[in-house]
Amino acid sequence: MLLRIFLLMSILPLFNAAAAADFWQKEWAVPEYAEGDSLIIRPIKRSDTARFFHSYMTSQRWLYERLGWSWPSEKSTSQQNETMVNYHLEQAKAQTAFTYLVIDKEDKSIIGAVYMVPVAASRQEKNGIPLTAYNAEVSWWLLKSAIDDNLHNDFFVLLKDWLEASWPWRQVLFPVSENNETALQLLESSSARSLGRDLDAEEKYFSYSISRK
User: Fold this and answer.
1) Contact call for residues 82 and 49 (beta carbons, < 8 A)
2) How far apart are CA 147 and CA 113, in angstroms?
3) Do residues 38 and 106 make contact, with C-beta atoms less than 8 angstroms apart?
């Protein structure tokens, strides 16, 4: 029962969204890797489980206050983390969602994660965001230490370049908590278009068109 509650509260609101028709097609190749001057983005692996847990728990309170995901909780456990990682791996295998880690090239540490998921049906029902207009929702977190080192700028440049060079999508949605000042600043200074906000969820939404180089 506790496990079911954990999945409901912490995972499903983020990763179990209703699939848009063109989120993924079988003939598409899943991008596996992106590398910049200081960072690498790669798929999460089972062998990352313990390091992944240690990574986000070092910024637990900071992330909890900014992401608006009710995660990570101060009561998060390694067993819950293992369940979550296994869930991400199952999604990737089924091609229903994709989870990637952000790696610091200098010390090989995990400093964040990126989530590519179908657009949640609730976006259309509650905020009028049409499911058919967007291929995916893209969200991420970075450790406080990474932001203190200004790696968020490198990350966002790498993410945009990767979306343009390797992903088959044309339009993605960026949902961001109003408490996530760093992510908001990145999006507001980019070519992403603001779609408005959800007062109840305290979220802002940005539309991002992917150009092909």
Assistant:
1) yes
2) 13
3) yes
Are β-strands 98-104 and 171-177 bridged in parallel, bridged antiparallel, or unpaired?
Answer: unpaired
Closest among 118, 208, 206 to 163, alpha carbons compared: 208
Instruction: Pick the closest to residue 35 from 165, 172, 203 (CA basis).
Output: 165
Contact yes or no for 34/40 (Cβ under 8 A): yes
Structure tokens at 213: 């180089």
- Predicted TM-score (pTM) of the model is 0.88
Q: How many CB atoms lie within 10 A of CB 5?
A: 9
Regions in the chain scoring below 50 on pLDDT: 1-21
Q: What is the pLDDT of residue 110?
A: 98
Residue whose entry in the numeric block shows the structure tokens 């179908």: 118
Residue holding tokens 């999508």?
Answer: 169
What pLDDT was estimated at residue 40? Answer: 98
